[in-house]
Amino acid sequence: MLPAELRPPLQVALARPAATLPMARDLGGDVLYEPKWDGVRLIVVVDDEVSLWSRQGKNLTRAFPELVAAATEQLPDGVIVDGEAVIWSESRLDFDALLRRINVGRSRAEMLARAQPAAFAAFDLLAVDGRDIRGLQLRDRRVLLEELARIWAPPLNLSPVTQDQAEAAEWFQTLTAAGIEGVIAKGAADPYVGGHRAWVKVKHRETRDVICAAVTGSRDRPSELVVGLPADGGLRIVGRTTPLRARDARMLGELLEPPASDHPWPEVVKPGVLDRFNRDRGPVTLTLVDPLVVEISADVAMLGGSFRHAVRFVRARPDVPVDEVVP
User: Fold this and answer.
1) Domains of the chain, CATH where assigned
2) Helix 106-115 × helix 65-74 angle, to 10°
3) In this structure, is the dihedral angle defined by the CA atoms of residues 44, 60, 90 and 163, taken in order, positive or negative?
4) CB of 275 within 8 A of CB of 226?
């Protein structure tokens, strides 16, 4: 029986973004590097029975019946494991397939589990034998996790770890082909603190040209750019930028023009249209502009042809014709 402080839902430890891999001195000592999986964060709790919990504290037990079955068979009572649910499709991580598991009924989830089974990549241990071990150093929690994982078989897996920064840099460069988003760095001496961004994540980003056809805020002082890509003979909204710096907003205010002809987008869009994990609770009003090519920096995570996260504005490309932008 788990003590009250370990009853789900639990706050999970979080990571803050960085541009480069941190070194030992940056995190106050030894560092453990791990792949950043493109999956769904899961806390696996074994307390008489198995339950699965999301980062937001939502019960996802029904969504992954194959993981529940594996945890029931392979994990002892009184254990809490932190990790990611992932689905592989042709040797690459498939986030779209994961999303199809969320908010479905039991029979639908079981059918999807048979068609595209999920796996679990474990990277931390919060409790063992009913005892809270979040106060232990990460290196010690890792030893206990590795001992626990000795008898595991797929779909339960131990996420790899290294203390070698050169090896972590190689992972960062080579694992992207499999859909790995980047690398997570963690202080080896750190306790597990839910809700605290002690970890560091370095994600792959790429630059590309897109078409800005709307903004939030005013045309002469835009707050964010709403960007699109050609699709099915039209222009599809694929995301928006992070808030613009003041100097970029001023510069773009001098370039942006009112629509010269009929515009492909509405003036009001539903929440979720601009990015997958949106911050809007109601409809978003757009200020439509004449399409302008801009260069953006985006991480590699996409969903259905759209950016899952906000992108970053790099520069305007008024020299590039709109019809030269490719999907």
Assistant:
1) 4-203 (3.30.470.30), 205-324 (2.40.50.140)
2) 80
3) negative
4) no
Task: State how far the Cα of 293 lies from the Cα of 315, in Å rounded to an integer.
Answer: 9
Distance CA(51)–CA(80), nearest Å, equals 10
Q: Which of 309, 240, 305, 300 is closest to 276 using CA atoms?
A: 309
In the structure, what pLDDT confidence band is assigned to residue 91 with cuts at 50, 70 and 90? confident
Determine the Cα–Cα distance for residues 101 and 103; give it in Å rounded to an integer. Answer: 7
Torsion of CA 90, 96, 98, 101, to 10 degrees: -120
Mean pLDDT over all residues of the chain?
A: 90
Contacts of residues 24-28 at CB distance under 8 Å and 24 or more positions apart, as own/partner, are 26/200, 27/185, 27/186, 27/187, 27/190, 27/200, 28/187, 28/189
Per annotation, catalytic residue among 36, 186, 201, 203: 36
270 is catalytic: no
Give, in degrees to the nearest 5, the angle at Cα 57 between 96 and 102: 25
CA–CA distance, 178 with 98 (Å, rounded to integer):
16
Q: What is the torsional sign of CA 14, 16, 21, 24?
A: negative
| In 155-204, beta strands by DSSP E | 156-158, 182-187, 199-203
Beta bridge partners of 287: 215
The span from the CA of 271 to the CA of 273, in Å, is 6
Contact 164, 24 (CB under 8 A): no
pLDDT band (50, 70, 90) for residue 148: very high
* SS3 sequence of 5-59: HHCCCCCCCCEEECCCCCCHHHHCCCEEEEEECCCEEEEEEEECEEEEECCCCCE
Phi, psi of 10 (to 5 degrees): -115, 145
Q: Within 13 Å, how many C-alpha atoms sit on residue 325's CB side?
A: 28
Please tell me whether the peptide bond between 283 and the residue prior to it is cis, using omega within 30 degrees of 0: no
Peptide bond into 155 cis (omega under 30): yes
| DSSP string for 135-151 | TS-HHHHHHHHHHHGGG
pTM reported for the whole predicted model: 0.72
